[in-house]
Amino acid sequence: MFTDISEAVIRPITETELALFTMKRGKKVVQHSGRYWVETARGFFEPVHWLARVPKEQINRPSHYCWGYRSCLHKEEAAYANGSLPIHLLDENDLTHYEEANLPAKRRSQLRKSRKVVQVVRIVEPEPYLEQGYDVLKSAVNRTHHGSIPAFDRYCENMQRQFAEDKSILLAALVDGQMRGYVVLSAVDDVAYIDTVLLATEFLSTDMGTALAFESVQVARRCPQIKHVVYGLHSVEDSRLGVFKEGMGFKIHLWPLKFRIPQIIRWIVGRQSPEKLYRLMGGQFKQRTVLATPPLVDDKNQ
Questions:
Q1: pLDDT tens digit string along 196-239?
Q2: How far is C-alpha 272 from the chain's CA centre?
Q3: Which residues are within 8 A (CB) of 285 and not within 5 positions of it... i.e. 6 or more apart?
Q4: pTM for the structure as a whole
Q5: Which domains, and CATH codes, for the chain?
Q6: How far, in Å, CA of 162 to CA of 182, rounded?
Q7: What is the pLDDT of residues 121-175, one digit of tens each?
Q8: CB under 8 Å to 36, separation ≥6 — which residues?
Q9: Angstrom distance (rounded) from CA 38 to CA 28
């Protein structure tokens, strides 16, 4: 059913393994210049390992049926970037020194409070917790309005497949033996990702989010291969979430990015959802504005 959190260890998978998993889930994956690229929107591609640092000469059109693409660069090649990926990140130095004593006083207090009522464990058999996990998902989606609620059968199928693939681990917050929140943690090469965080609204007062974030980092630290831990993209429109992540040590890093996105697409996205454009290509965030006409000239040198 579950194991003690102190025994939880994550095994990073390779980019090739991730590409195979992604294809099994029905996504279009192409191999180009020795890398794997996934179609994340019709005609738009990015590396299947989205924080992979790709040499600049390998970043170009990965498919003939491609109108746009983006990829992170090595920091040594940051001069060739034309954008940035805004992420919440623990880098190698911060990860090495990630201890409870180094957290801000407020987060240390929340962690102590949570430990009195919350038990963080690693779930190794999903069946006993499927219904509880589904209730957590429904509660979280109804609160945040982010994502959708699948049918219960589909949820069970997805969770069972996740455990069968063995490419991620699930850490759960138990209150009185019942799952009230959980995190899905995965790792590719030297990067660990806090992928999914779902918390039941009724139990937010237990500060289980603080406990889950802290223990996720401890799990990542036990693997010597892990050098970075990513806690999602910077949601500039959700300041409270950003403050929480930064308080847990996940600073905002602007990872150098090379992209090719037609200017008309950027204008449309920027007009309708400037926060999405910011997460797509970085740059200075601007509140939604209404322009009379879109720019007509595309950038030829990207």
A1: 999 999 999 999 999 999 999 999 999 999 999 999 999 988 89
A2: 23
A3: 236, 274, 275, 278
A4: 0.89
A5: 2-10+97-253 (3.40.630.30), 15-89+256-261 (no CATH), 262-302 (no CATH)
A6: 14
A7: 999 999 889 999 999 999 999 999 888 999 999 999 999 988 988 889 999 999 9
A8: 15, 16, 18, 19, 22, 29, 30, 47, 48, 49
A9: 6
